[in-house]
Amino acid sequence: MLDVALRHSLGAFTLDAQFRAPPGVTVLFGRSGSGKTTIVNAVAGLLMPDQGRIVSGDRVLLDTAAGVRLKPHRRRLGYIFQEGRLFPHLTVRQNLGYGAWFAPKGAARADLAQVVDLLGLGALLDRRPGALSGGEKQRVAIGRALLSAPQLILADEPLAALDEARKAEILPYFERLRDAAGVPILYVSHSASEVARLATTVVALEAGRVIAQGPAAEVLSNPAVLPTGARDAGAVLSARVIAHHDDGLSELSAGGIPLFLPRVAANPGASLRIRIAAHDVILSHTRPEGLSALNILPGLIHEIRPGGGPGAIVAIDTAAGRILSRVTRRSATAMGLAVGQDVHAVVKAVAVAATDIGAG
């Protein structure tokens, strides 16, 4: 468990944030300037806040009232930056060894061979950073952090410098890190897709304050706390792979409802986490026929939230979970939508991007 309470002023900006991060991946989520990196740097010991207390497990890293401030190298943290920050003159093997060199004597630490296997680094060990792609560099940076025997890993927008192809390459490795490494992670992001795939807990920030905290499915369904408002709103569903079909589609089951998506890289039986954007969902009073869309989820309207503009978010409770649909207020009025009403949520199979599908 990580407990954070910080207050810090920098010019006109004031950070005043408190949150508790349980095991898993806790994502600090918000637009640029909301205080995410300030928090991470305070946890790392790179910033001394005006007031604060930070406790990781049973270790007090900072307590300004008590005069406790552990130096960065004594905090047992692994830090993954936006760029890999590898030593260019060292091989991948040597860069990984540099992380192990910082592990405290006698500390339980990850085995090099296990880390290499976890991150798919076997073929890269004798290369130097100049011969690596951006995604490969980040995988090495993750491995170096793991081998330092950290009690907490900090990741400050580690995918921000990568293009979409490299992000798609490295996201599965962060999922493996979340599920297999056993090290809590404090992760900074302003991408709803990243948050939906990785987060165990989301801490949403706005102007230096925590405005929401909870599971990804709960926080991402609230446009009021999203960096771009309703445009980023969406549902996060859990599903299981049933089969892969010859026409390139994968069949999944979400709460007993079949979902068809472009082929996913997971074996039958695997659990997945899927983000469905609200703007990709249309509504119908009756089960539609003669449509090209393959995914139809019946449910009851739980809530209708008018926006500041012409739109509204409709939350529908289905057997698969809560689905969100972004519609115009004119459409909601014309359809006579009301809380408690039966509707069908319709989702095109190709509307769900590969980056919105991750390991459950």
UniProtKB/TrEMBL annotation:
NCBIfam families: modC_ABC. Its EC number is 3.6.3.25. GO terms for cellular component: membrane. PANTHER family: ABC TRANSPORTER I FAMILY MEMBER 10 (PTHR43514:SF4). InterPro entries: AAA+_ATPase, ABC_transporter-like_ATP-bd, ABC_transporter-like_CS, Mo/tungstate-bd_C_term_dom, ModC_ABC_ATP-bd, Molybdenum_import_ModC, Mop_domain, P-loop_NTPase. It comes from Roseovarius mucosus. PROSITE patterns: ABC_TRANSPORTER_1, ABC_TRANSPORTER_2, MOP. Residues 290-356 form the Mop domain. Residues 1-232 form the ABC transporter domain. It holds the Pfam family TOBE. Keywords: ATP-binding, Cell inner membrane, Cell membrane, Hydrolase, Membrane, Molybdenum, Nucleotide-binding, Translocase, Transport. The lineage of its organism: Bacteria, Pseudomonadati, Pseudomonadota, Alphaproteobacteria, Rhodobacterales. One of its GO terms (molecular function) is molybdate ion transmembrane transporter activity. It is an enzyme of class 3 (hydrolase). This is Sulfate/thiosulfate import ATP-binding protein CysA.
